[in-house]
Design goal:
Length: 856
Amino acid sequence: MRPTSSVPAIRLSDYKQPEFWIETVDLHFKLHPTQTRVRSKIVFKGNTDRTDGPHDLRLHGQDLKLLSASINGTALKPDEILLDAEGLTIPADLVPQGGFLWEAEVETNPQANTSLNGLYMSNGMYCTQCEAEGFRKITYYLDRPDVMAVFTVAIDGDAPVLLSNGNNLGDGKWHDPWPKPAYLFALVAGDLVSHDDHFTTMNGREVDLQIFVRPGDEDKCAYAMDSLKRSMRWDETEYGREYDLNLFMIVAVDDFNMGAMENKGLNIFNSKYVLASPETATDRDYELIEGIIAHEYFHNWTGNRITCRDWFQLCLKEGLTVFRDQQFSGDARSHAVNRIENVLQLRARQFREDAGPLAHPVRPTEYIEINNFYTATVYEKGAEVIGMLRTLVGADNYRKALDLYFERHDGQACTIEDWIKTFEDACQMDLSQFALWYAQAGTPRITVTEDFAGDTLTLTFTQTNPDTPGQTDKKPQVVPIRTGFLAADGTEAAPEQTLVLNAGVQSFEINGLLDKPTLSLLRGFSAPVVLDRQITNAERAFLLTHDTDPFNQWESGRAYALNLLQDMVVADAPVDAAFPKAMQAVATNDALDPAFRALVLSLPSEDALAQAIFESGTAPDPDKIYAARQNLAKAVATELAGDLPDLYGALATPGPYTPEADPAGKRSLRGAVLSLISHLEPDCASAKAQFAAADNMTEQLSALATLIRHNQGGDAVQAFYNQWAADRLVIDKWFTVQVSSAPADSAVEVAKALTEHKDFDWKNPNRYRSLVAGFAMMNPAGFHRKDGAGYEFFGDWLIKLDPVNPQTTARMCGGFETWRRYDPARQQMMRAQLQRIADLPNLSKDTAEIVGKILN
Ligand code: TRP
Ligand code: ZN
């Protein structure tokens, strides 16, 4: 592959078993903000499969001060330990090859650890993040997922709450009976309070449940706890999986690089995915809390009991666990609405990634920094691949295969080959071609032609598998296409079929049809592909009205809008009068779920439109894209003018707020209606009234966003701040709403001014993202402003964050990944920013890898 950095890449093909295994680990922590001492006793055992010895002892270790080390009680002399930046080596002649006791003491400085990786401090509280390779910042160890050991931990510190994995032995001592890789280790110590509950498992075992938060936040844990209990029950009924300790703990921390982490028995969460009250959390926040609580809990079986052999196998646990959390959320809410939301997200993040310089297979074959591979491709496309497997084998076979997977691999560190083999054995089928989904990057493109003669419809599909960085000449993949056949009256002319493509060009015949049906292709988005089909807007409107598959019903409206918007931007086409009428029919159809109607009314994003225009061969103009969306929305609002006030009134959800799907769906449609109304009201009176009256964050925030978009934010922005100054999660929203909704010509100035605000604590990832990503990713017209000020602002802040928090910086660089879409002037300005970052003398390897790939 292309050289991207001077740091050598790690390759899947180089995998070797470790030279030694670890049976048990005893850790003793003496906590101190700047000088924490960690004593370790590790029982090593020779790996008899590695007959190529004798072996040195090579341990990972980073940013550690080694105070002492011994083998079998004999202290090692300084010249017997070869230290380097990545760890230490003890020469083979000092290492009893069959096994030995290693003892060491190290010192680390949690307060200075701004990377939020390893042991660090957040608001005076100690916490850890070890996935993927953070444990090596805690002590010298074989920090790789195929080394699984039983951990015993003793914590010595003055904090009132001292937590680690497994069973509580009292006095800050913990024992985890389940062997685990080091990345699942966790420690928390601080002044915390807990919200307690309990759960009785399917076999009658009692489990204590505790959610630990900072004092003052304990009244915001109820929804997370409820989600946890529902997740535990769901995993029992749907997968037969029972929880396996007597205690399950969740800790909320404010400084966290990602969403949450599945440490055994002690999940650690970004506080924004735990804490919720109606006044401070939106419906979307509640939905995310439910999904992420479920995700981390489900990892207990898919990730912890069965883990990954090496980090290339990350999708083994992540793809499967995302698929499981999506199933759970679908069961808890609406399958149709959830599927649409998941596909929107997949296209926005994963298709974008697959189409650009960072494209990689669901199972990558090389990396420089593994933290850069916690991607939409590994997670979301990884989940899609499992969904396709389930479609191909059927629900019963899927369950049979999962039962076999748990039975066969419990306690092991596995590979994608193990996973595939389990399905092959359980379902008696050959999945070798299907396995290409794990190996080939890029979104397959499918075209289809239709021929109708006599009573037979012949469908001919063509599959192309695009080149991606480092991969050409790909083979056709297995693509299940759920297909419906609609008669002119909207009924199904023939039963739905799943057509399974497995060749580059392939035809299918459907017999016994009276007339040529209208096809409903790729129902439920049965494969993560781009489908190019010849279809008129009239047919799209027909499907929007009649398709019995809700996903495709929505998809038809979406494709219709995308098509019109593209013509408006590229060819200055006028607004098509039929489209607003089609939207009106949906918006006012009370037989349809309000949440679904809201999704139909929402227009394709500016980014989706930019990608579509780029693929049609034109450089997208961000200002024209913004304007076209506004014009189309205005046309819809005008058409619906007579309906909007009644709709708005009817969608009110009186009484106390509840976060369930039904009232949330009404609020979501009501928010869309408010946004339409505001196109017709020069003074935004309705939004102002809603802002003043709102008793929940969903309605308060949607009103505020609408006001800002119409340049009427002033007083409301200030009032919102005054009301919420003490609530850090709400203040994150306050930053985001301003930079994401600000009109394009002033957005950079708004963002810059906010970086001077006293609450802009940029070392906190939530706060940093709320402003910097809120601007660069959520305000495309502002970010891409012609003078390049948006790019420069973004570049400045990436450069500022990199030395402090490389992982978050590298992730944020994705804001530049689409730079080749744009006109030469914009390309040149974005490339200059990327080059400026690439040229920094002490750039982290995280950011160097990403920027290098984006530039290449
Ligand atoms: N395994 C976690 C999850 O998917 C995500 C994760 C990986 C993570 N690395 C991390 C979280 C670093 C926080 C920090 O649930
Ligand atoms: Zn996960």
